[in-house]
Structure formats: C-alpha cells, structure tokens
Amino acid sequence: MDFEYSDRTKALLEKLNKFMDEVIYPAETVYEEQMEKAKDRWQLPPVMEECKAEAKKRGLWNMFLPADRDSGDTHGTMGLSNLEYAPICEVLGRSSIASEATNCSAPDTGNMEVFARYGSKEHKEKWLKPLLNGEIRSCFAMTEPAVASSDARNVECRIESDGDSYVINGRKWWSSGMGDPRCKVIILMGKSDPSAPAYRQQSMIVVPRDAAGIKVVKMLHVFGYDDAPHGHAEVIYDNVRVPKSSILLGEGRGFEIAQGRLGPGRIHHCMRAIGVAERALEMAIKRAKSRVAFGQRISEMGVTKAHVADMRMEIDMARLLVLKAAWAMDKFGNKEARQQIAMIKVAVPNITSKVVDRCLQLHGAGGVSQVFKLASMYAHQRTLRLADGPDEVHRDQVGRLEIAKYN
Ligand SMILES: Cc1cc2nc3c(=O)[nH]c(=O)nc-3n(C[C@H](O)[C@H](O)[C@H](O)COP(=O)(O)OP(=O)(O)OC[C@H]3O[C@@H](n4cnc5c(N)ncnc54)[C@H](O)[C@@H]3O)c2cc1C
C-alpha cells in the first residue's frame, strides 16, 4: 500500500486550496446572506453559479469520476482514481458549498456514476451530459416511509410493465435534492417482479422530475434544518408512466446497480466528513486560543490539550482507514472492497460526530448557535450514521465477512 499523493493530486490540491481561500471561504458568508434575504428558500443563491463558473475556469470540475475499470472511459473528466480523489474530496468537505461548486456533490456524483456505468446511450446523452456540465441536478429515491428501508428488499414501490411503458406507484421519502428547482431527473428503485428471487425483484428506473403523477407531500427537516435549496422530499408516485427504455441495465438488476452506486457514494461521504472534522478542529483551536477563563487561556488547559490530542489521533486514524478503502476500491473493485467500505461507513461518521461535538463544546454556547457552523456540522455528521444505511447494517457486514474468513 502506497498512500503517497500522485503528482496530479499534488497539483490539484495546490489549485484547490487556492480556490478555497480566494473563492469558497469568502462565498460562504455571501451564500448565507443571500439565503437569509431570499423570498423563496427553494431557489439557488446566485453566488453558487459564480463559484461554479470560477471552478470550471480553474480546472476544478468533476474530479470525482474514476475511469471505467473495463473501458477506461472517463466521460471527458480527469478520471482520478479513488485514492487520488480522496485528499481532494477531504478539502471540499471543509466547506458546505465547495462540493456543489466543483460539481462533486451528492447525490449527483452517485447518479452520474450510475449513468456512466449502466446508462444507455440515450440516458448518457439526455441526463449524464447536462449533469456533468452542472446544468441540472438529480436525486435518488430508494427509501420508503412504510418499510424498514435499510433492508432494500423491503422496498414496495411498484414498477409495472404496461405495453411500451412502465407504470410506477408508491411513496418514497428522504429523496435528497428534490427541493432544488434544477433537479430534473430521479433514479428510482422499485419492485418490478415480486415473484422473483429476493435479489432479483428490484429494478432501477430513470424518471424525469416533471413526469405526470409525481407529487411532493412535504420536505423533511434534519434536526430542524430544512437543507434548502437542496432538501429531502417525501414523494408520491401515482401512476407515473415512463417509456420502457427508462429501465437501467434491465429488469431485476436493481441490487447489482445499488452495489456499484453505493460504494463510491459512501467513500465520498467519509472523505468529506474528514474535511468537516479538520475544519471544526481548526476552529476550536483558534477559539480556545482566543479566550481566557479562570486566569488561563482555554487552549492551555490540560483537558483542552487532551481533547485536541485525541481528536488529532482520531482524525488521522479515520483518514488512513479511508485511504486504505480507496486503495482497495482502485485495486480490487468496489465489490471486493466492500468490507473496507463498510468499515469506514461505520468508523468515520462516528469519529467525526464525536470530534465536532467536542469542538462545539470548546466554543461554549456559541457552538450551538447559528453564529458558528458547528451546530449544522454536528447535525449533518450525525445523519451520516443513517444515510446510505445505518451503522448496524454495515457493522453486521464487517463482522460477517470477517467471520467468513475462518473455518
Ligand atoms: C439526511 C439523510 C439523507 C438521506 N438521503 C437519501 C436519499 O437521497 N435517497 C434515499 O433513498 N434515502 C436517503 N436517506 C435514507 C437512508 O438511506 C435510510 O434512512 C436508511 O437506509 C435507513 O432506512 P430506514 O430509515 O427505513 O430505517 P429502518 O430500516 O427502519 O431501520 C431503523 C433502525 O433499525 C436498526 N437496524 C436496521 N437494520 C439492522 C440490522 N441489520 N441490525 C441491527 N439493527 C438494525 C438501526 O438502528 C436502524 O437505524 C437519507 C437519510 C438521511 C437521514
């Protein structure tokens, strides 16, 4: 295992850090002000398009997409490996607006990978191209309110064949990104054949956001945050009709695609989470250095040093584990690296939630307010223990695969 950054990564990191200092960090305040003043929270603050234009100009665009393992196709992107992208993604994670500004944000990254790997020529032309250009956005609809969706076999939404169409009926929730007016396409997982073997019952299908019969019931809040203009929607699909060509890869192949999609999505979440933790730690140290209590700088107190030391060690351990997973994905493929991916999906959000919690404590009451970013950082890190599958499911997989190694 060699985690030395490649020359491409080093060059990109230099450019990216400059972009963060010159464009992204200053734009964070503008973004917040524009959101506060906006009459409609479900419109994108104009500063985002300015950041996107600047990122494109500086060659910091679509860095997430690795070259296809079989064909080598990069779809016009740099084709960075997972290991090369990891440190880039970490830096992007330091700001809540950097990933979108560079067209590297979820759920579009996962959806673009699906279109790139499993989409037909038509899907690529109609959806992948504008997604790669940052002209539209997308969402992924698997989770349902009525069933325990951590077991995707439970998904009930029906995809039924009818002549030259499929008809979709069901209710989904936590469809992230659905609130964005630029969200034009949904990748939906549903049941196409309830009588097939358990892992062949589900299919993934492409649904245009403006198809007749799609009704948003409500937008869900995360610890009180509406996450506008992105948002998480509860949605009814009432006799939504799409052409037969909308099915991805073929009927009954939903699990196969999920396997391919969720691996990279999970590692990206973890890489970004490490960036969040680094930023929180930096903020906490600066804050502790600037305040005096009981005649002593907070940074000089023994308990602060102990907390800082633990956080430094935990973040570095998390990063090494993520780099190992990225390396395994590049070397062996997403399927073979599934234990490493499951390991980071449990370890990293637990570590980063704890780090942000301690940094929040070091800020005193300000930490839970809107003045610092820590409250929203904490809320989002906590959700990562659920999103893309709860801790328990991934822990179970790690244990199962480990036990299976021995007779
Ligand atoms: C912020 C956020 C964004 C999300 N975005 C999306 C999205 O874009 N698209 C989408 O489709 N979904 C999305 N989700 C949903 C997420 O993927 C699901 O919530 C998750 O998979 C769990 O499903 P569930 O909520 O139905 O929990 P359930 O399946 O009802 O599970 C509840 C709890 O049961 C326990 N449990 C479950 N299985 C096991 C097990 N094997 N062993 C032990 N305990 C177990 C766990 O404690 C688990 O948390 C998002 C969620 C959040 C919070």
Provide a descriptive summary of the structure in words.
- One of its GO terms (cellular component) is cytoplasm.
- GO terms for molecular function: acyl-CoA dehydrogenase activity; flavin adenine dinucleotide binding.
- This is Acyl-CoA dehydrogenase.
- The chain is 48% helix and 15% strand.
- With 407 residues, it is of the alpha+beta class.
- It folds into three domains: 113 residues, Acyl-CoA dehydrogenase/oxidase, N-terminal domain (Butyryl-Coa Dehydrogenase, subunit A, domain 1, Orthogonal Bundle), CATH 1.10.540; 112 residues, Butyryl-CoA Dehydrogenase, subunit A, domain 2, CATH 2.40.110.10; 149 residues, Butyryl-CoA Dehydrogenase, subunit A, domain 3 (Up-down Bundle).
- A hairpin with a 2-residue loop joins strand 2 and strand 3.
- Helix 5 packs antiparallel against helix 7.
- The protein binds flavin-adenine dinucleotide (FAD).
- The site of flavin-adenine dinucleotide (FAD) has 23 residues, from strand 1, strand 3 and helix 11.
SSE pattern: HHHHHHEEEEEEEHEEHHHH
Can you count the beta strands?
Answer: 9
Structural class: alpha+beta
**Distance separating the two termini:** 27 Å
Percent of residues in helices: 40-55%
> Would you tell me the overall average pLDDT?
96
Condensed summary:
This protein is α+β, with helices and mostly antiparallel strands and about 400 residues long. It is built from eleven helices and nine strands.
